[in-house]
Amino acid sequence: MHCKLSFAPRRAPPFQLPSPLSRLVAGCWLALALALALFPAQAAGAERRVLVLYSLGPDAMSNWQRLLHDGMVDELARRGTAAMPVIHEERLDANRVGAVAATAGMAPHLRSKYARVRFDVVVAEGQVAALFLGAHPELFPGAARFYVNYGHTGWQPADGTPVAVHPDFDRAVGIVTRTAPQVRRLVVVGDSSARVQRWIAAIRGAAARHAGRLAFEYWTDQDFDQVARKLATLDRDSALLLLAAGLNDKGGKLDPHELAHRIAAASPVPVYTHLDSLVLPGMVGGYVVSGEGIGRVIARILLGGRTDDIPLQRYVFDAPTVERYGLRDLPPGAKLLNRPDSVWERYRWQIVSGLTLIVLQGVLISALVVALRERRRTLAALNDERDHLEERVQRRTLELRTANSMLEQLATTDPLTGIANRRKMTEQIEAELERGRRFGHPVSVLMVDIDFFKRINDSFGHDTGDRAIVAVATLLAAALRTIDTAARFGGEEFVVLMPETEEAVAAVAAERLRAAVAALRIDADDGGEVTLTISIGVASAVTGDTPSTLLMRADQALYRAKQDGRNRVVRF
Q1: Comparing C-alpha atoms, which of 119, 47, 87, 85 is closest to residue 303?
Q2: Is the pTM here over 0.70, yes or no?
Q3: How far apart (Å, rounded) are the C-alpha atoms in residues 496 and 451?
Q4: What does the pLDDT average to over 290-308?
Q5: Where do the TM regions start and end (predicted)?
Q6: Between β-strands 86-91 and 2-4, what pairing exists: parallel, antiparallel or unpaired?
């Protein structure tokens, strides 16, 4: 694909000339038009053509590519129409299909597609594009080659100008001690790839300069489940430095962007990073490589300008996460993402309306003073209107309260069973964990799943399956204490919250529930009866637990119960 940016010049108003001079000017314009018509190829030949090869896919599939493109477009727009080139873009899409598949067959494709195009400049951005372009010196003869942001490969181009970007891990580590002085333990999360190992070697070099101030720990040989379990053990004296790595998961390998999302959701401590495309909600940020800055460098290369005055690394932070962890002493000029709007920006029209009403009220008071003879009648009318208004406001307030109550019930109740839903249960667990931390009370949860539920649906129909779910929900709600809460968590899965309950006591209650369900009989559509069994995982809260970590342990216990043959209770 290619694009050409152009801007229409402002037209001057028509200029009136005397008649003879007008004819002379018209003749000059005609001569100029003929010259342009006779030599079109020469005008077109002066056009500068450039090609940009991106390692990753479209902006919609890559946060890094979006930042890169935003910086490039903004820099091109700043330079106006002066020497604007025709820009062709090719995306290898390595983040989706992998480096090998992205480059396979690409050379013949480019050679055929641009056989009649002569480029002045070719820019490769990222590791995959740089290695591809360097491996094919026969492509695009005569074009100046630039290799941008490839430095972590340990490879140097032999036929072009390198623009390598090496993460400054000394500053990336230093910002942790500056913004979170209570941190004494920094956990570096990465993988075993050669690229990440080079970064970790650089971090080890920076670690020597922080000896005595920070203890470093490296998690590089675990999958995501192992990392998630370790996260639950971190205390407030710890922080994470997440590298642009990929970890194995049950569904395959997580890319850096998805990994950042999951780590941010699971981590009880602040998470720093070294790449601005990973600064997502829940991630602190830090001293990062700037995708926008690299995009500006590419734009300068395309325009033939200097590139050494563009910062390629800067401080970027997620404002709500900074506030959440109480971080302070941010560097001057740091970029804050997702910052809440100011009072003026959020309530601008309300403030203007309020001031307008105040002014109008002042005018009304002045008019009332002048019209003293009409005072009593006006006040009586106003009092009568006020009474009616208060009555309408009270009636409307009652209607809104009733509607809000119904909406709240709908939002927190499972429509099939009538018990709490997933959202309500998550809120209840969070509240009980906070109360347990405050008063030292134990908190336990039961993760309940109907055994072989798919077999029930397949054999007896979905109506029978729904009756089974309702029967189990009714039994759970009836068999619990008033302080306990039962919720349908999804499908045939339920969660029971038991405040002020030790794990051993919760396991006894779970066994009682299991036996009660085993005694249930569900009427099938064909006149027969269906028996049910359930598997239950039991877990109790530990220090630093969040709803997700507590539920994750209960789910792991439930998984073991199913692995051990179902129809049983297993404690975490």
Answers
A1: 85
A2: no
A3: 17
A4: 91
A5: 349-372
A6: antiparallel
More confident residue, 35 or 220: 220
Order of strands across the sheet with 2-4?
2-4, 86-91, 49-54, 121-125, 144-148, 161-163
| pLDDT above 60 for 45 | no
pLDDT tens for 518-546 read: 999 999 888 889 999 999 999 999 999 99
Q: What's the token pair of residue 102?
A: 């992205």
Q: What is the mean pLDDT of the chain?
A: 86
Helix, coil or strand: residue 205: helix
Provide CB contacts within 8 A for 410, sequence distance 6+. none
Both tokens of 31, joined, read 């001569």
In the chain, what is the straight-line distance between the N-terminal and C-terminal CA atoms, in Å? Answer: 55
Which ranges constitute the DSSP H helices of 413-479? 422-439, 453-460, 462-479
Statement: residue 135 has pLDDT above 60:
yes
Alpha carbon 304 to its chain's center? 35
**What 3-state class would DSSP assign to 120?**
coil
DSSP conformation letters of 314-375: EEEEEHHHHHHTT---PPTT-EEESPPPPHHHHSHHHHHHHHHHHHHHHHHHHHHHHTGGGH
Q: 455 to each of 215, 458, 461, 513, how far by Cα in Å? A: 53, 5, 9, 22
Per-residue tokens: 546:
């969040």
What span, in angstroms and rounded, lies between the C-alpha atoms of 435 and 427?
Answer: 12
Nearest to 492 by CA among 450, 433, 551: 450
pLDDT class of 97 with cuts at 50, 70, 90: confident
pLDDT at residue 134 tops 60? yes
Lowest mean pLDDT among 103-117, 249-263, 508-522: 249-263
Where residue 62 falls among pLDDT bands split at 50, 70, 90? confident
Do 443 and 493 meet the contact criterion of CB atoms below 8 Å apart?
Answer: no
Res 264: pLDDT: 93
Pick left, alpha or beta for residue 360 (phi over 0 → left; psi -120 to 50 → alpha; otherwise beta): alpha
How far apart, in whole angstroms, are the C-alpha atoms of residue 1 and residue 202? 38
For the cut 80, the answer to whether the pLDDT of residue 193 exceeds it is: yes
What's the sign of the alpha-carbon dihedral 341, 343, 348, 349?
positive
Q: Strands 485-490 and 493-499: what pairing?
A: antiparallel
What confidence score (pLDDT) does residue 376 get?
A: 82
Within 10 angstroms of residue 477's Cβ, the number of other Cβ atoms is 18
Q: Could you tell me which of 417, 482, 484, 419 has the C-alpha nearest to residue 445?
A: 484
**Cβ–Cβ under 8 Å, residues 420 and 429:** no
Indicate the SS3 state at residue 310: coil
Chain-centroid distance of CA 149 in Å reads: 23
